[in-house]
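User: My collaborator sent over this chain with a note saying "see what the structure looks like." That's all I know about it. Can you take a look?
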Amino acid sequence: MQNDTLVVDTEQILAAQPPTFAGAAISMDSGERPATDTRTAGVVARPPLLFLAALLTGFVLDRFAPLLCAVLGVDLVHWVIGGSLILIGLALAAAGIRDFLRAGTPVPTNQPTRALVTTGTHGWTRNPIYLGMFLIYGGIGVAAASPWILMLTLPLAITIRYGVIAREEAYLEWRFGDAYRGYKGRVRRWL
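Assistant: Without extra context I'll predict from the sequence alone. Here is the result:
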């Protein structure tokens, strides 16, 4: 199996541009680059925690502040649709994670990126893991017939878009320069 993931040498980029991201407490002396680069995108919170917090908030609100428009009962249709969304989301997220592992770059947002992944699922969406997480989240909301979970999708999407993805995109553009800008021009953020 051939791995055609684009790997950009960040040594020149790191030496040329000053750090402006989280974890940038690295001293650089007159043109010397640091031995280890610990800069990250500086996202507002780890994305899985954001999704989990929204789910838990939705379940608590369903229990203690039920909506009048709540769907009565949970029937087979909810389970089939919700289960399908969950399975598709799991497959998509797993494929995105596999792409990262093959490229030798960490998945967690609190670790520095080592490679720009542009193949596999990343060849048709720049955020397959987040897209998968949204499908899983929505599938849980549908399967549980939870109006609160489904309503919290919008604030969650705004938080992920501006508190996570926007920061990651700025970081990747800084880190990989023209290679990332070219990738961003070819591949859509979501679908």
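A starting point for your reply to your collaborator: The chain is about 55% helix and 0% strand.
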